[in-house]
Structures are given as C-alpha cells and as structure tokens.
Amino acid sequence: MNFTQNYLTMNKIHNYSAGPCILPSEVFNEAAQSVINYNNSNLSLIEMSHRSGEFVEVMEEARNLVRELLNVSDDYEVLFLQGGASLGFLMSAYNMMRTNKNGGYLVTGAWAKKAAKEANFMGKSTIVASSEDKNFNYIPKDFSLGGDLDYFHVTSNNTIFGTQIKEFHNSSVPLVCDMSSDIFSREIDVNKFDLIYAGAQKNMGPAGTTLYIIKKDILGASSVNIPTMLDFKTHSDKDSMFNTPPVFAIYTSMLTLRWLKKYGGVKAIEVTNNAKAALLYNEIERNSLFEATANAEDRSNMNATFILKNDALKTEFDNALVAANINGLKGHRSVGGYRASMYNALPIESVQVLVEVMKQIEKKSA
Ligand SMILES: Cc1ncc(COP(=O)(O)O)c(C=O)c1O
C-alpha cells in the first residue's frame, strides 16, 4: 500500500480524539512530504538548520498567520515555544507576578487546577471561584476580583468536562487565558487579554509547540526572578529562536493555519463549529437514551460530554461506534461516559455519522 492509499484508508475514520486529534487531510500530505524532501531542497525539514533561511521563513509565516487570523495588533508578541500548556501554567505565573505576588484563578476543571498550583512556586494563587462542587459541569459567573490580584487566569474551554466560557470577564485585572482547546475555533478579541497560551495539539498541529500571544508591556515587568528559559523576554528578544525550536511541530502548525486561512478564517470555521455542535447537542437532547453532562448555557462547542442513561446498552453502542469507524469517543475517566471532540478539522459529515448511530441505537432499543 503506498502512502496515498494508506492515507485514504486512515482518513475514513471519524476521529473524535480530544488531543492529539484530527488535523486537515491536506496538512498531512504536505507535512509528510516536508520530512522526505522539503520544498525540493533534497533535504528533510527535520535535518536542516533552524537558522536556515527556509526555516526562518516558516517561523515568520506561522507567527504572521496567527496575527492575521486572530487580528493581533503590534502591541502583542507572538511566540512558538516548548513545554506544552503545562509549562505555560508555570511560565504565565512567573511572568505575570507583580507587587502582590498573587494570581487569581477561575477553577473550571483539572487543567485550571493544575495552573493554579504552579503560582505557588514563586508567589501564591487565590481561587476566585470554582465549579468543583458539581464536578466542573458549569462555569462560575457570580464572583468579583479582589484588588490584590496581579492577574486573573481562566481556561477558555475545559477539554475534560465539556464547558466553555462564552463571555470573558471584564475587569482592570490583567487577564491570562489558557486557550489550548478552543483557540482558532471562534472569534475572540485579543485586546481583552494580557496573555494567551495554547498547546498546538488541538486546532493547530502535532504536540511539541505552544503558542503564546503576549502583550508587549508585560515583557520584563515581573516582580520575581525568572529562570532564563521561562522568561518570555528571553524568547521575544530572539524572535522565538532562543534555542532550537520544534521545527516539525511549528511547520505543521503553519500548514494548518494556512488551511484555516483558505477556509475563510476563524469567522468561517466558527459557523461550521456552531453547526456541528448544534447538530450533536440537539440529538443528545432529543434522544431518550442520552444525557449531556454540562450545563446547557456553558456547553463547549469543541468537546461535548454526554452519558448513556442505560448502562446495559453500552456494549451495543460501543460496537456500533466501531462499526461506523468512529474513534476516540470515550469520555475522560473523571467524567465517564462519552466525549465528542469536534475540533476545527473534524468535518460536519463525521457528526452526521455519529448522530445517525445514536438514532439507530434508540430505534433498536425501542
Ligand atoms: C485546556 C488544556 N490546558 C492544558 C492542557 C495541557 O496541555 P499539555 O499536554 O500541552 O501540557 C490541556 C491538554 O489537553 C488542555 O486541554
């Protein structure tokens, strides 16, 4: 079987994985080609210097596409770094600490909880509000921010629990956001945020790089001593090339961003994402066998979490999913049930197939 045949077979899978996850099919073709022979240079992308003109161009295009797609002004720096969003928890705290050495956190899930923990390494964290009382099935909205916070950290989309912030908090406290699982899925006003970070492995590319969008006036403004590699200024001063960048992850992310631009940008993909989510949530509501786990008003358009009310039907439903080539629907162990991750590259046809399987099982069990 040659590469194309192999790829076509692979592509028949309806990939609902939570991340790493589905990427646009043309991205795979180009990314694979770049490893064999990058732009007819007779060199692989992964064996050429990151200081070469070729790769510097890739880095610049990737950073510029982020600016273009999210309408990022010159007041912000755009960097592609390493360490995943998990290092972002620590880096954001190091770089955002000011005189109070106190970060405020909206704890809406496991990732937010982990982020809050990291602030205690160089300062302290204050839990402004939490939805842990109901296993994170909602977004707290009734809270105020104390005057002694250096920043306020939120998670735009809770990948595990299937909730999403629909409107970001307005306040004078600098806003920091982990957008790992919904960046580029909907229009946002970057000007509301002092810092945005997102691991690549959902709407951008393979794991290995993390996108940072940083308001320039926070560079060098921390009140704590930051280790060199964790200081945004180190990376900003060197145009995101302080040390060897993860070239393949950045190149593939750049290809995905090119794909998104061709698609019509964030505005266009948001329309599709809304349609996909509506299709699935409507079926979950309509179908007597299923129940959504997240509060209706806070449901995520990226990760829909739901349960099968009658456990006795589990094997039958799971077998039907396999027969329909649906992959990655198993819920996270802390929620159970099912989780349909509908990232940008998942076609609406995959959601139609899932909805059809849900209808069929209801019919059969009637
Ligand atoms: C919202 C969110 N934040 C942070 C992380 C952790 O990312 P990483 O594995 O890149 O450290 C994840 C991973 O899925 C996530 O979904």
Distance between the termini: 43 Å
Number of strands: 14
How many strands, which pairing sense, and closed or not: the largest β-sheet? 7 strands, mixed
Taking all Cα atoms into account, the compactness measure Rg is 21 Å
The distinct bound ligands, ions and cofactors come out as: pyridoxal-5'-phosphate
**So what's the overall shape?**
globular
- The count of helical stretches stands at 10
Structural class: alpha/beta
Helix content: 25-40%
Low-confidence stretches: 1-9
Instruction: Give the SSE order as H and E letters.
Output: HEHHEHEHEEEEEEEHHHEEHEEH
Residues in β-strands, percent = 15-25%
Strand order of the largest sheet: 2-10-9-8-5-3-4
Overall average residue pLDDT:
96
